[in-house]
Design brief:
Largest sheet: 7 strands, mixed
Distance between the termini: 19 Å
CATH architecture of the largest domain: 3-Layer(aba) Sandwich
Low-confidence stretches: 1-6
CATH class of the largest domain: Alpha Beta
Number of helices: 13
Length: about 400
Amino acid sequence: MKLATLPGSRLSRAIAPTTDLEFVSGEGVELVATDGARYLDFISGYGVVNTGHCHARVVAAIQEQASKLIHISTMGSTAPAGAYAERLCAAAPVDDAKLVFTNSGTEAVEAALKLSRYASGRPNVVAFAGGFHGRTLGSLSVSTSKAAFRTRHEPLGGGVYVVPYPRAELEPTLAALERLFVEQVEPARVAAFIVEPVLGEGGYVVPPDDFLPALRELCDAFGIALIVDEVQSGFGRTGRLFACQHAGVAPDLMTVGKGIASGFPMGALIGRAALMDAWEPGAHGTTFAGGPLACAAAEATLDVLEEEGLLENASRRGAQLLDGLQQLAVAHPSLVVDVRGRGLMVGVGLDSASVAARLRGELLERGLIVSTCGPDSSSLRLSPPLVIREEHVSRFINTCRDVLQAW
């Protein structure tokens, strides 16, 4: 399949496309290029279009709201913002929840870092190795998924300590936290832990089941806020509305974005009312967040997730995907190192970054879009829309099998 070439562009190369394709439309699990070629999208715009591209109910909600009111900022309130705030707070696994809207996931993280320090008077934050929380300076200061993201942006924000994210066992992480509190920073000086319930950019790693409960216990013991970053894992991606629900843990603060509004730019910081109300009026602000268009798209997204069985589908199709990939790992042990994931958030560890790049390129030539992740980019990142069907997963597995068998 010949790849299209993008025309000349005045866009900065800083945010560079990962392919030479130019897309003109999307529907469900497919993207359509300028030459009419259709591609099966296995990254969902990096975990954004959980309801699929241009879901009819989301499109209709945006169109209806756009004909009424687009923007007012903080001059007053709107019915879409109030209604969606009530609904999201009721759905979130946060006790007595309130929220502030943001324009993106990284802004939600910035707000969480600001609030945890503001409310506690403590200056420090503990993050976990491999975590990715955004590209703005505060979020980048707690992100360690790739050194390249941080390079030449230093100095980043201070007061950040990093301990290992648990992979197979929890004990090394707990031991590192114990040493941290003895050797570097007393827990009474720590405002928050910030953690992804499943590592995203860091490699799509699912931690041991007792990880989040152990963090919750430590936070309760030392008066530390638990910030759970659900920007990539939220809104059904793992088969629950939020990934921390698999562990039965209630965060103090939770950041969301990406899948919240099916592609309309939006995010939110959700937290316990006692924390959210620690901010004095005017202590935090934003011009565009919580606009009526974004809230209309977000409410329609939640309708689709809840009423069309997408969480259940994520679990079923995720199990199918994991099973098929694990069979490939057995058949090709020198190429496929491991397969891990939860729901439709699946990582495939490959022998090297060059193998991952080659597989990604050959899948693209066959009409399948995937991305890579992990510190050395040696893993495939698979996060298709939650509307994906059995035949799509089978096509993906069969195509991977054909490519690997030909090597």
